[in-house]
Amino acid sequence: MARRFEGGRLVVASHNAGKVREINELLAPFGVEAVSAGALGLPEPEETEDTFVGNAVLKAKAAATAANLPALSDDSGLAVVALKGAPGIYSARWAGPGKDFKVAMERVHREMAAGGNSDRRAHFVCALCLAWPDGHTEVFEGKVNGELVWPPRGSRGFGYDPMFVPGGYDVTFGEMEPEKKHAMSHRARAFAQLVEACFER
Ligand SMILES: O=P(O)(O)OP(=O)(O)OP(=O)(O)OC[C@H]1O[C@@H](n2cnc3c(O)ncnc32)[C@H](O)[C@@H]1O
Ligand SMILES: [Mg+2]
């Protein structure tokens, strides 16, 4: 049995504004008092693990310990089939110190073109970790398959959204209404499991 979140304040252990916005939207129906790591002045830990789950656990534990509150982290990224799963856990790092996702998307496009492989398939992965100050953790993973397009389209969402068309759709995550993304994204799928295990009565 998973440990349940018993209410009160919850730290959203992310320094990515786009993610924090999405997590707050996903948490909204549950009456959780969410406070972001940035608002608490928590440091951004170095992501030293080599898996999404490993980095999610590292970030949630660091925030839960520092804030002495339960903390929810998200480690996510884009895995491109023709690039053997890259950028993967390095998705944020491909944007460089300026966190410029135009740069990151251009690198994906350039490396795909250079590889000469016409396979456009990719998927987003999201690992969520809920950690408590005593070190207990619960972890959930979600995935969404899709295809990459060039040039990027749309200004909604964040990160690689403008170049990702989820399977069964013809718009990118950058063009899609947020409510639609929340019904089927990697983050929404991990979230549904989190809610079932730790939030719903
Ligand atoms: O670690 P935190 O502080 O949460 O923020 P971050 O941006 O560094 O987050 P990650 O380490 O998990 O890196 C994941 C990157 O993958 C990208 N990404 C994740 N989910 C995405 C989504 O739903 N749409 C577009 N890009 C996404 C996004 O650009 C992120 O910067
Ligand atoms: Mg990060």
From TrEMBL:
Cofactors, names only: Mg(2+)
Q: How is the cofactor bound?
A: Binds 1 Mg(2+) ion per subunit.
Q: Which domain of life is it from?
A: Bacteria
TM spans (from-to): none
Keyword terms: Hydrolase, Magnesium, Metal-binding, Nucleotide metabolism, Nucleotide-binding
Question: What CDD domains has UniProt attached to this entry?
Answer: HAM1 (cd00515)
User: Binding positions for Mg(2+)?
Assistant: E46, D75
Positions bound to substrate: S14, H15, N16, A17, G18, K19, S76, F158, G159, Y160, D161, K181, H186, R187
| Catalytic function, reaction form | dITP + H2O = dIMP + diphosphate + H(+); ITP + H2O = IMP + diphosphate + H(+); XTP + H2O = XMP + diphosphate + H(+)
Any one GO MF term held by the record is: dITP diphosphatase activity
Which Gene Ontology terms describe the biological processes this protein takes part in? nucleotide metabolic process; purine nucleoside triphosphate catabolic process
Statement: the UniProt record of this protein carries the keyword Cell inner membrane: no
Q: What is its EC number?
A: 3.6.1.66
Quote the catalytic residue positions: D75
What's a GO cellular component annotated to this UniProt protein? Answer: cytosol
> What does the annotation say about its assembly with partners?
Homodimer.
Q: Which family does it belong to?
A: Belongs to the HAM1 NTPase family.
Relate the protein's function as given in its record.
Answer: Pyrophosphatase that catalyzes the hydrolysis of nucleoside triphosphates to their monophosphate derivatives, with a high preference for the non-canonical purine nucleotides XTP (xanthosine triphosphate), dITP (deoxyinosine triphosphate) and ITP. Seems to function as a house-cleaning enzyme that removes non-canonical purine nucleotides from the nucleotide pool, thus preventing their incorporation into DNA/RNA and avoiding chromosomal lesions.
Query: By what name is this protein known?
Result: dITP/XTP pyrophosphatase
Q: Which organism is it from?
A: Caenispirillum bisanense
